[in-house]
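call fold(seq) -> tokens
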Amino acid sequence: MTSADLVLPPTDQQTPTAALLHAPDAQPLELALNDMNLLLEQHGYVIAVYPANIAKVHERRLHMIRSMLESDRIALLKVDLPPLGVAVLVRQLRQLSICDFSAGVVASSARLLSHYIHAGALLSTVTKLDRVPVSLKAHAKSWVPGSQFGVLANPTPQLIKIGSAEELAGPEFGTHLLVAKGQLQSEWVKETIAPAWKVQAVHETPLPSDSPGWWGTSKMIEFAAFLPDISVVYQLVASVRREICSWCGNELIGDRCGLCSAPLRAQQNQTNGSGVLNQGTPMRHGS
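ret:
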């Protein structure tokens, strides 16, 4: 992981923590190479998850390390989720890392699991929001004092004005809701989103440092609904047909190798990862 505040506390004693891959201004290249070598020696593989809005110099450092080590055991997963969504995904991957999946399956499961994270925020303004489409009408309303907006960034972008008849589309399966408060005082997330989405529990966590920049304002409350039960996450991943990457030889699910990023050959692309959840109950598909 590239930021300490994106490493959520484990939900049980078995979930491992995450190693930090520091930015170039925080660690010389030689030390970064040594750290990566040590991680490979200790664990065999490294799955490095980093947000899409990471500094370009930091992203180049990660690719440089993998290139210099000439290793196909380092996965670089660029995730286009809001900060809290990234943190949730990283914790799920940490949970999967101690299951009986290969490193290739764990790495390629990130794309699948991202679809089951409903990540959004309550914002006081959308004038600087560029991660979600904002209409001119919404921009105009954003200048009205006291206006607030509910925004969903994933899995399908959506923006509503608080107080209107519109509602944010929630998950159709059982979830927990993680809430991180910025400089905005409101109970809308807990009193409106939680019951509307029929979440099973609400948890609070500190706001990630990158969240105000991602959402375009510090006057916000970020939230993410996620699958809380590792057994459900496990069955979701296990329900997808596994393939062997024709480039690096590792296992994968989906249409792209999580370790080397090579696409799956068209005739092999027969995954069935959609529809495996129904109101919180996983259903195993035949392969």
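The chain has two domains: 4-116, 118-226.
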